[in-house]
């Protein structure tokens, strides 16, 4: 049985991971949970999964959690209550919890960086959903993996697809994953993209895009931030950088193809021109389960793929002028060093401001581009952790300052004038 820690247990990835544990109790048990602030759901999870430790980022709610847990366990004969911890540092303690074999990283954004690094330093295997960690800090994370022997199993559906395809190449083990070296025999990676919320909108109509429009994904049900990233296609751009660090390919060999049905989750082209694809219904439980069970395949009763029912799979080139975020991500990835951390932090801040209706959808790429431009002269090619944290903070401030300075043209009403 594998002991699992779930970081971000109350989110979309976290709750789906816990559904897997519930469905396969012989294979998995939960030893650690971490959450931001959703006390009610966290309490239900504690009641059901009986973890050894629970960390709550929002320290101000810790005493309320303690009270509720005391009540929950007061008549409990067989299980001890979990150790409860609060604050950011507690996430690192839970992430490196001794009895865990594998840590599922479902925290959203760069907030996942330090907990993920703690888990890596403790030698835990990682099921990586929190892509922002690798994007912002690839040059810091990769050497730490090498040092500790911890392995990164991709849980993002595209990278899981590539990883699954690689099992059929002369590269059967996971040993070279995340070493930053090119994976031998692979010529190209093709990441598929659903096209996001606005795929059927004409570019000229994006001026009317609202938060509600951008947070309605046609194929996947996910947290708000990644749903907006899918609508701008920044998610795909971030995944290009994620693929670069995971599989070691140069950016010229990582392509994006629009595939609205989300049945092919990504493809690899091999040296002999053969292309391998991994398929399945768009359900995050599949890549999560594979990251949790590798190298085993667990028998599931989940809905089976029926291609005759689907009928047609379609593909097209991404529209780079409608979606400038993709090119911004390629440029940041190619610049390397601290630039992807700036791109990522600027994007997190821009998406947060968009969700608060302080900037218009069309301004998301503009404020990110401005932050990346301003960072060019300060770029550090071989950053340490402190450099990553510093530029992350700087980029967030730079975006807020830019938005404040240009407030007259940031929102929908001002843009339409
Ligand atoms: P979500 O918003 O649904 O959940 C985020 C979780 O992180 C919650 O438990 C929240 O409490 C916690 N959290 C948020 N801020 C925190 C902070 N500052 N400190 C500690 N905890 C904090 O997000 P999600 O959609 O589950 O995405 C999680 C990660 O997985 C993201 O990096 C995303 O890119 C990646 N991912 C998600 C999906 C998906 O289907 N949802 C697919 C692929 C990759
Ligand atoms: Mg993905």
Structure in words:
This protein has 417 residues and is of the alpha/beta class. The chain folds into three domains: 2-154, Rossmann fold (3-Layer(aba) Sandwich); 163-282 and 295-310, no CATH class; 336-416, Rna Polymerase Sigma Factor, Chain: A (Orthogonal Bundle). The protein is 45% helix and 14% strand. It has helices at residues 12-23, 39-49, 62-73, 88-95, 113-121, 131-148, 157-166, 211-214, 224-232, 234-247, 285-293, 307-310, 325-335, 339-355, 363-375, 385-405, 412-416, and strands spanning 2-7, 28-35, 53-56, 83-86, 102-105, 125-128, 152-154, 186-193, 254-258, 264-270, 275-279. The structure holds nicotinamide-adenine-dinucleotide (NAD) and magnesium ion.
């Amino acid at each position: 049985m594998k002991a699992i820690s779930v970081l971000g247990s109350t989110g979309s990835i976290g709750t789906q991971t816990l559904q897997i544990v519930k469905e396969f109790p012989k294979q998995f048990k939960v030893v650690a949970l971490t959450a931001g602030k959703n006390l009610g759901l966290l309490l239900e999870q504690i009641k059901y999964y009986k973890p050894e430790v629970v960390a709550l980022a929002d320290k101000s709610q810790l005493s309320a959690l303690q009270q509720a847990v005391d009540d929950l366990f007061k008549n409990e004969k067989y299980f001890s209550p979990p150790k409860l911890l609060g604050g950011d540092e507690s996430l690192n303690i839970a992430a490196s919890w001794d009895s865990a074999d594998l840590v599922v990283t479902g925290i959203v954004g760069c907030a996942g960086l330090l907990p993920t690094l703690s888990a890596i330093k403790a030698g835990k295997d990682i099921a990586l959903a929190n892509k922002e960690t690798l994007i912002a800090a690839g040059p810091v994370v990769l050497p730490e993996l090498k040092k500790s022997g911890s392995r990164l199993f991709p849980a993002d559906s595209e990278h899981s697809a590539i990883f699954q395809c690689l099992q059929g190449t002369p590269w059967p083990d996971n040993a070279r994953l995340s070493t930053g070296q090119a994976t031998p025999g692979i010529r190209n990676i093709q990441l598929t993209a659903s096209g996001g919320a606005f795929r059927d909108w004409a570019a000229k109509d994006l001026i009317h895009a609202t938060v509600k429009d951008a947070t309605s994904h046609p194929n996947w049900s996910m947290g708000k931030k990644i749903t907006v990233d899918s609508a701008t296609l920044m998610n795909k751009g971030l995944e290009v950088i994620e693929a670069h660090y995971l599989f070691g390919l140069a950016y010229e060999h990582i392509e994006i193809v629009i595939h609205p049905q989300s049945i092919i989750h990504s493809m690899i082209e091999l040296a002999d021109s053969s292309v391998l694809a991994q398929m399945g219904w768009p359900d995050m439980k599949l890549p999560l389960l594979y990251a949790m069970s590798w190298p085993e395949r667990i028998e599931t009763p989940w809905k089976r793929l029926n291609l005759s029912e689907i009928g047609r799979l379609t593909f097209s080139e991404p529209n780079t002028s409608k979606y400038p975020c993709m090119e911004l991500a390629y440029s940041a990835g190619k610049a390397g060093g601290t630039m992807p951390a700036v791109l990522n932090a600027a994007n997190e801040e821009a998406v947060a401001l968009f969700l608060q209706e302080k900037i218009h959808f069309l301004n998301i790429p503009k404020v990110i581009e401005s932050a990346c431009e301003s960072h060019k002269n300060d770029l550090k090619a071989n950053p340490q952790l402190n450099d990553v944290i510093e530029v992350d903070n700087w980029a967030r401030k730079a975006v807020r300052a830019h938005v404040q300075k240009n407030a007259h043209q940031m929102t929908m009403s001002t843009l339409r004038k």
